[in-house]
Amino acid sequence: MQLSSVSPKLLLQLCISTIHCIFARFFSKVCSWTAGARRGSASAVSAAADSKPNRSEDQDATTPTSVNYHFTRKCNYKCGFCFHTAKTSFVLPLEEAKRGLKLLKDSGMEKINFSGGEPFLHEKGDFLGKMVQFCKQDLQLPSVSIVSNGSMIKEKWFQKYGDYLDILAISCDSFDEDTNQLIGRAQGKKSHLDNLYKIRTWCQQYKVAFKINSVINTFNIEEDMTEQIVELNPVRWKVFQCLLIDGENAGEAALREAERFVISDQQFQEFLDRHSGVSCLVPESNEKMRNSYLILDEYMRFLDCREGRKDPSKSILDVGVKEAICFSGFDEKMFFKRGGKYLWSKADMKLEW
C-alpha cells in the first residue's frame, strides 16, 4: 500500500490508531500478569473441579445446530484485525472432511457455514464447491452458507455449485477504497467494492441469498454505510465489533496486531445508532460473539474462545461430536439470544429473484 495515495484524514487515523496500539499492548501485558496471578491462586480450585464426575450420561448434550467450519487458514488478504490467521496451511482431504460433516449432521446439525481464511482460495473454489454440494445434495442440510472476501469468486462457480448454496456472505468493512487498503482488505490495486457489486449481481442471477459482514473498527467507525447497504439490499447485514483473540490477532504468538483496530462498546453502539434505520442490520458485540459460535478449525476441532484465545478440543474425527463439543465453550442460550437461528434456507426466504 502506498501511503502517498491515502488521504490526510486516513493518515491521521493511522497515526492515532498506532499510538492506541502501543498503549493497548502495554495494558495487555499488565492484564496478562494479573491473569497469571489469578490462575496460580485458582489452581487448587481447578484441581478439585477436575476430580468431579463428568456430566451424567442421561443429560442431553449440546446440539450442533449451526456450525462454522474454517477448513483453511490461508488467505490472500491481510486484514489487520483477522481473528483466524494463517498459522497452518493444512486442509483435510475431501473424504475426511465429508466424514466429519456427516458426523455433525447425524448429531443434529442443520446449518453449515464454510469460512477461512479465504475458502475460495483452496483448489480455486472447487474443493469448497464439492463440500457445498455434498452438504445440500447428500446430507440434505436445510442451510449451507459461505463467508468470503469475494476476491476469488468466478461466475463459473455459481454455474456449477450455485444451486446447492443458500447464503453467500461477503466481508466488506468500508465503502471507501482507501479505508479498505488501510484495513488490509485488498489485494494489490484490485477494487474490493467492484467485486462486491459484481457478486451481488451473480447472487441474484443464480438465486443465492446475499449477505454482508462488516467488522467495525477504528478506521470505519465514523462511516455512514446506510445508502450503500440499502442499495445492495442483503438479506442480512452482520455488523461485528472488532474482537481480540490471543494468539491470533493479539499477543506475542499472533500474526496480527489488532489492538489499534479496537473500539469501545460505546463507539460500537454509536455506529449501530447511526444505522438504526437499516432493517437488515444484525449487530454482534464482543460479548455476544465470544461463546455463541460453534467453530471448527482445519482439523475439525471445536475452538473454545471463552478465555480470549482459541483452545482446541480433540477432533470430532477421533472422539466424535458428543465428546468434542463438551470442550467447545459453546453457550447455546446466547446462540439463540443473539438470533443465531433464523430463516436460513433460501427455499423458505421467498426472495424475489
Automatic annotation (TrEMBL):
Looking up PROSITE patterns in the UniProt record yields:
RADICAL_SAM (PS51918)
Alphabetically list the UniProt keywords.
Answer: 4Fe-4S, Antiviral defense, Endoplasmic reticulum, Immunity, Innate immunity, Iron, Iron-sulfur, Membrane, Metal-binding, S-adenosyl-L-methionine
**Annotated GO CC locations:** endoplasmic reticulum membrane; lipid droplet; mitochondrion
Task: State where the protein is found.
Answer: Endoplasmic reticulum membrane
Q: What's its membrane topology?
A: Peripheral membrane protein
Chief location of this protein? endoplasmic reticulum
The question of whether Signal is a record keyword is answered with no
Coiled-coil region(s): none
Mind telling me what this protein is named? S-adenosylmethionine-dependent nucleotide dehydratase RSAD2
What is the protein's species of origin? Stegastes partitus
Q: Which taxonomic lineage does the organism of this UniProt entry have?
A: Eukaryota, Metazoa, Chordata, Craniata, Vertebrata
Instruction: Report which gene this protein is encoded by.
Output: rsad2
